[in-house]
Write a structure and sequence with these properties.
With 204 residues, this protein is α+β, with helices and mostly antiparallel strands. 50% of the residues lie in helices and 20% in strands.
């Protein structure tokens, strides 16, 4: 009887801890921005790397993708300027992903950061492995962003304009150099031809 009571108590405590973790909101402080959907935070005395739950932003670190830089800057600005940052753990999500990053909802001054990113067209709804708490909200915001053609959903990547401008300048420079070189070669050929003609006339 005693063993059974201890076993049940153990199970109760285990489930209680799991439930507290899943529903708990934890105040954190920003340590470092990584990219549009990842950041380092200090949670009590622990330094943790967090992957933002249920979204995916374009790459901006090892791989450069359109709007990756803009998404990263948007996230970092929101986190840096926030007076309060809160992580919320989702009951239907794993605690960590396969890269050992915590998975959580991120609130900046009581506003869901994932939703802000999706609304601005800097993120898409992704990696849904459970019935997450704010999935419907994100999907609705994504539909609006798609309809309005925001950033990743239709607008031109601003970096493309810079590359296009640089390409045009380089093309102009190449054309000018080519024209200048062609004129120089033509002049040299004309001089050579005149000399040869004079020589042949003298030899007649």
């Amino acid at each position: 009887m005693k063993k059974r009571t201890i076993f049940l108590l153990f199970i109760f405590l285990f489930l209680s801890i799991k439930t507290v973790y899943a529903k708990e909101k934890t105040d954190v402080t920003l340590l470092k921005c990584v990219d549009g959907d990842t950041a380092w935070f200090k949670m009590e005395k622990e330094e943790i790397k967090v992957r933002f739950l249920a979204i995916d932003t374009p790459e901006s670190t090892n791989k450069k993708e359109p709007f990756g830089k803009e998404a990263s800057e948007f996230t970092c600005k929101k986190l840096t300027n926030a007076k309060k940052i809160v992580l919320e753990w989702d009951l239907n999500s794993e605690e960590k992903d396969k890269y050992d990053r915590y998975l959580a909802w991120i609130f900046v001054d009581d506003v869901l950061l994932q939703d802000l990113l999706v609304k601005e067209g800097y993120a898409e709804v992704a990696y849904l492995y459970g019935d997450y708490k704010y999935t419907d909200l994100l999907k609705e915001s994504e539909s609006i962003a798609k309809r309005e053609g925001k950033n990743i959903w239709g607008q031109e990547d601003p970096t493309n304009y810079t590359l296009l401008f640089v390409g045009i300048i380089l093309l102009i420079i190449i054309c000018l150099i080519s024209t200048k070189y062609r004129k120089k070669v033509t002049k040299e050929l004309e001089k050579y031809a005149k000399k040869e003609i004079k020589k042949r006339i003298k030899n007649l």
